[in-house]
Design goal:
Helix content of chain A: 25-40%
GO biological process, one term (chains A, B): ornithine biosynthetic process
Strand content of chain A: 15-25%
Oligomer: homodimer
Pfam family, one (chains A, B): ArgJ
Number of strands of chain A: 15
Main location (chains A, B): cytoplasm
Radius of gyration of chain A: 22 Å
Keywords (chains A, B): Acyltransferase, Amino-acid biosynthesis, Arginine biosynthesis, Autocatalytic cleavage, Cytoplasm, Multifunctional enzyme, Transferase
CATH superfamily of the largest domain in chain A: L-amino peptidase D-ALA esterase/amidase
Number of helices of chain A: 12
Order of helices and strands of chain A: EEEHEHEHHEEEHEHHEHHHEEEHEEH
CATH class of the largest domain in chain A: Alpha Beta
Pathway (chains A, B): Amino-acid biosynthesis; L-arginine biosynthesis; L-ornithine and N-acetyl-L-glutamate from L-glutamate and N(2)-acetyl-L-ornithine (cyclic): step 1/1; Amino-acid biosynthesis; L-arginine biosynthesis; N(2)-acetyl-L-ornithine from L-glutamate: step 1/4
Largest interface: A-B, 68 and 67 residues
Chain lengths: 413, 413
């Protein structure tokens, strides 16, 4: 079960002026599931995206990058679950385009004004007819007050829907930000991770929005891992509809780090962090939510090496599942993380607030009961002070349980 | 259960002239287990070792490196299971030294003529009194015809003992090679992996033996992974007792690649490969043995990146456990392995002899039944042709099962 995570209340996901959402049950892979989502954006909206670095990136990812580069004025997003349209070659691209053409026809747009997204099984042909057959129902369902249905429509092995909202004031105007995400396996940051959609009605220029997305993704989706596998389909999209009435936030605001820019950037980043953490809390088979914080590094890169060595270790993740303070496994991971000339006698390891290891071994005052008490919590902080600099980083992950194996051994059946 | 691996017959492990082995049940961690092993070497034996690159390397690893560097004439090896003496700081070093001093006293040697090894739980103090109390029984048990007991005495979570022998002719003299190994979790190559001991009675110089160990480890223990965790204690030791009567193989043989050198090197490498593969076959919870062969790379380094991306992916390893030909997960791993400018349309993916993917997607002639048939086998070949060069590499790994989680969640209890 997800770790301290429930589906949001429908009313808690605030409408964003200029964004409408509609779903369909199109039977892409399984019947009686919301599996097609259409999002429309009012004319003049700005859209920015970051995508997987996987070189086997999916056909829709290739199209998204192409259409965004064309600056064609994105007006709609189309998401299907049940099939990733990845590892599908030239024919996969054709099928993704067909869905864009079909939706463009129904919405009176050009095909390159539609961003397509797919998630699900890799290496199988997209059942394009089913997706297209579902579009009229999704369009009939379009409304602003529909974010929870949208969050449900993009779920695959997710147990709960993921979404959150914020409101801030910019120059006396109320600005709303609402985001949804999906994902619980094949999760390792290498750019944006999984599907995430965050919309705001703020007025913000394209370049400012792109500045915000880079900042937000590095603080959120690029700091999570479930299993170290980088998906073929990861995409994060930021959308701004320009309807809140605030003075447009532009490149000058970015350069001067104006109060409005910082406020919007931080609120959108906050949404991104909550959505990213929700993916980990709903990680496949997760029973524990772990925050791995590395401090005292020479640079952020070496902190990330240590954080991911810990966050990826199956030995550590199974020990956390067992609530076993088998902390030697954490020392071993620090030792093989690849930090140049690490002084193992200088570093300190903490579990929650408990000092566990120093001087190259177990801390003199450490008692196993202290470690056990921390390990029983559903949320656990692992903190390492490398004691060689001022850099730090934080990564979130979950434990590794029987259910992880079960879910992934059964996923296609 | 181990994949196509049984404990060797006692008689199949051939004595090596000049090597005696004796065990004790010293109750280091648990009662009624062979947990202390003493190996003695005849005077004049040559010894070479390679050790973990983990910076949190264990106290005995530090001592081994030190004593080998002193060229003190190694005459005995001392191994305990149940405790790794890693993450134990200065006191760990003291305790490891105490065991060497004690054994040296009993054997009338100097402490720096003893190589110590420990394997088991990290971060707990070595119960040095128990190890030392076990030494007289181990010494009383010393004999040449004792390799199976020795293989059993170094097991931890191993299900079966691991050992093998070869005999070759060098200049009309019969040369024997016998090796044993242990390990089934925290296994990822970054130098020698796990504990491995390979002895021969061949006459071979120190420099030639060191040349052989580097060659052998790169073809064997550095090509396996179970869980991607590099242990704190990994050690591989080659020993040569000089009693076979062959003309000594020396540095000139290495330089000229003489027939005798190649014969001995390849036979010892063959033993190392069998011992390394045995560790994977007995990988924690393993039900499948996977050979991952990458061909057509620009260099070996990029082939290894791809091989390990596949061999480490929990998504792929759980799919193999389920005998599910979910091959898209393999394409995804190839895509995120970090190969520069990979042409995903040029590469080919094979499962056994079956061409699964080409032109960026599923091969036209591929049928799911073909993949399913291969996946049901206990030994599976995954082959990728990167189609951009002549380099290749092979890595061995196992699948990821419920039992992996169970073993590692329970290991300390």
């Amino acid at each position: 079960m997800p770790v301290k995570l429930n589906s949001p209340e429908a009313a808690s996901l605030l409408p964003v002026k200029g964004v409408q959402l509609g779903f369909a049950e199109a039977h892409v892979r399984k019947p009686n599931r919301k599996d097609v989502l259409v999002m429309t954006l009012v004319e003049g909206s700005k859209v920015a995206g970051v995508f997987t670095l996987n070189q086997f990136c999916a056909a829709p990812v290739i199209l998204c990058k192409d259409f965004l580069a064309q600056k064609s004025g994105i007006r709609a997003l189309l998401v299907n679950t049940g099939n990733a349209n990845a590892g599908t070659g030239e024919e996969g691209l054709n099928r993704a385009k067909q869905t864009c053409v079909a939706l463009a026809g129904l919405l009176n747009l050009q095909a390159n004004q539609i961003l397509p997204f797919s998630t699900g099984v890799i290496l199988e042909p997209l059942p394009v007819d089913k997706v297209i057959a579902g579009l009229p129902a999704a369009i009939a369902n379009l409304k602003e007050d529909n974010w929870l249905n949208a969050a449900e429509a993009i779920m695959t092995t997710d147990i709960v829907a993921k979404g959150t909202s914020r409101q801030i004031q910019l120059g006396g105007k109320t600005v709303t930000i609402t985001g949804i995400s999906k994902g619980s396996g094949m999760i390792h940051p290498n750019m944006a991770t999984m599907l995430g959609y965050i919309a705001t009605d703020a007025a913000v220029s394209q370049s400012a929005l792109e500045s915000i997305i880079q900042y937000a993704v590095n603080k959120s989706f690029n700091c999570i891992t479930v299993d170290g596998d980088t998906s073929t389909n990861d995409s994060l999209i930021l959308m701004a509809t320009n309807l809140a009435g605030n003075t447009e936030i532009n490149e000058d605001d970015v350069k001067s780090a104006s109060a409005d820019f910082i406020a919007l950037r931080d609120a959108m980043t906050d949404v991104a962090i909550e959505l990213a953490q929700a993916i980990v809390r709903d990680g496949e088979g997760a029973t524990k939510f772990m925050t791995v914080k590395i401090e005292g590094g020479r640079d952020e890169a070496e902190c990330r090496k240590v954080a991911y060595a810990i966050a990826h270790s199956p030995l550590i993740k199974t020990a956390f599942f067992a609530s076993d303070p088998n902390l030697g496994r954490i020392l071993a991971a620090i030792g093989y993380a690849g930090v140049d000339k690490l002084d193992v006698n200088a570093l300190k390891l903490y579990l929650g607030d408990v000092l566990v290891a120093e001087n190259g071994g177990r801390a003199a005052a450490y008692l196993e009961e202290q470690g056990s008490a921390v390990m029983k919590e559903p949320e656990i902080l692992v903190r390492v002070d490398l004691a060689r600099g001022d850099a730090s980083c934080t990564v979130w992950t979950c434990d590794f349980s029987y259910d992880y194996v079960k879910i992934n051994a059964d996923y296609r059946s």
